[in-house]
Amino acid sequence: MPGLLEAFDVLAWDLPGHGRSPAAAADFTISDLADGVLDAVDAARGGGRNQEIHYAGDSIGGAVGLHLLLDHPGRVAAASLICTGARIGEPRNWLDRADLVERSGVDAVVDGSRQRWFGPGFGERHPDRADALLDSLRAADPVDYGRACRALASYDVRDRLGKVTAPVLAVAGSHDQPTPVATLREIADGVVHGRLEVLDGVAHVAPAEASEEVTTLLRDHHS
């Protein structure tokens, strides 16, 4: 999303054991991940703390964003929460998924992710982009992928949404199965200053599926 680099200083992060991030030393919660994001921001700024940030995150990244808003309310000027929820899925399903990946490897969930992540025809129109995302999933450390699943199993901030006072943009994909439109509407309606945008034909990875539309929404919301 190069359009963001023209307007903001962007710091991207990966989950533990994913992408360029090292494996975690122990289990973690979504709140722990939020703390880690702020630590990374403060380190990138040369140790300066208590400065406000603008945050955007998709899926589990959106869950991290909600914990940033709740646990560190003075640090987040505004947030965009994309294809996510105040709770995501059912705890039992996440625990079963963690067990499967820890037993059989991340390959065991790649085909299912291919079906759920992308809207109709995206994989055919943009095979390189879809394959790159799935390859990044396939390369994840299975132990840390399982830890992320277990973190989502214990994640539920629905009863705390009313405490979020920073402006929140909730972005939903019309074809998103893991976090359907209703879960984003719950966020937009539950926080003090929320707004919902729905992207037609998009599923669970809106920043990849509709990068121009998401870039425009983020620039408008965070300007």
UniProtKB/TrEMBL annotation:
- Ranges where the AB hydrolase-1 domain occurs: 2-206
A Pfam family cross-referenced in the UniProt record is Abhydrolase_1
Gene Ontology MF: a single term: catalytic activity
Under SUPFAM superfamilies, the record lists:
alpha/beta-Hydrolases
Question: InterPro entries recorded for this chain?
Answer: AB_hydrolase_1, AB_hydrolase_fold, AB_hydrolase_sf
Q: Which domain of life is it from?
A: Bacteria
PANTHER family with a match to the protein in the record: MONOACYLGLYCEROL LIPASE (PTHR43798)
Q: What name goes with this protein?
A: AB hydrolase-1 domain-containing protein
